[in-house]
């Protein structure tokens, strides 16, 4: 037998007789509910006339920062939906110094994400070891043709413009090593340009 919830007034007395109610009590209760609801803050959002205020780290769409991608394939391997498509080929880079060794590197031919399959788990963004994938809060990319939900690398790159800037570092926090390396390279390049007798020196490999 189910127990009555607290505050619930049974329709019958303990002896089983119908409980007396005064005429119009139901109407009064209904009006009380209406008044209570009218005075509460509304939660309805008038989308699309009014854009929702989303947290900056909302999982809307994934942007690709292609320059950071080394085609390691980790994101495609870890994606539980197998909806990341990557094609690449190998290229041989000549030795940087005389007598040095040639290097081989992967060159990206295709990078696409099928957002009709993606379940927005964020695993690809988390596992990318080179910070090439980012969440953007953009969500207005519905399509009438499901095939258009496969975003190719150009479109994924465009989403990067909508990725919010990272939050500021805490006071006294160590500078990220990427920033330190970029600053040192820029300083070295500036020194070389200043020392060059005839015009600015071209950047060398390893300055970037
Ligand atoms: S968010 Fe999850 S499902 Fe979507 S592409 Fe990344 S790993 Fe795959
Ligand atoms: S995990 Fe990152 S670096 Fe590796 S293929 Fe995916 S996006 Fe590129």
Strand adjacency order, main sheet: 2-3-5
Tally the helices: what do you get? 5
* Low-confidence segments: none
Small-molecule binders: iron/sulfur cluster
- Percent helix, as a range, is 10-25%
Shape: elongated
The percentage of residues in β strands lies in 15-25%
Text of the CATH class of the domain at 61-162: Alpha Beta
Radius of gyration: 31 Å
Largest sheet: 3 strands, antiparallel
Structural class: alpha+beta
> How many β-strands, per DSSP?
5
CATH topology of the domain at 61-162: Alpha-Beta Plaits
Please name the CATH architecture of the domain at 61-162.
2-Layer Sandwich
User: What is the H/E string?
Assistant: HEHEEHEEHH
Average pLDDT works out at 87
How many angstroms does the end-to-end distance come to?
74 Å
